[in-house]
Known about the structure:
Layout: E1 7-11, H1 16-27, E2 31-36, H2 39-49, E3 52-55, H3 61-75, E4 80-83, E5 94-95, E6 98-99, H4 102-109
Parallel strand pairs: 1-2, 1-4, 2-3
Antiparallel strand pairs: 5-6
Helix pairs in contact: 1-2
Amino acid sequence: MDVQGKAAVVTGGGSGLGAATARLLASKGAKVAVLDVNEDGIKAVAGEIGGLAIKCDVTDEASVRSALETAKAAHGAARIVVNCAGVATGERIVGREGPSDLARFRKVIE
């Protein structure tokens, strides 16, 4: 796929799979908007790839709308969108110490 010059939006771009995706797209010539709640992460990744860092909480519709408007104003309409945002914890539902924290578990599921 030719992504040269195409506007791309990557959620969860502040670390992990999202950051790797943003780097790959940028290396192929895409104009990448890096979205995440991790402000330090998006600044680092966007700075590294020459992209646009946009703080965004994908669980908040207003935050997503604002982020997409900002990305569009900078790079034009997105032709590539990769959703990598997510919350994951490295704990068992029920471990030796008992059940995991219900609020943390619900955040992962919902």
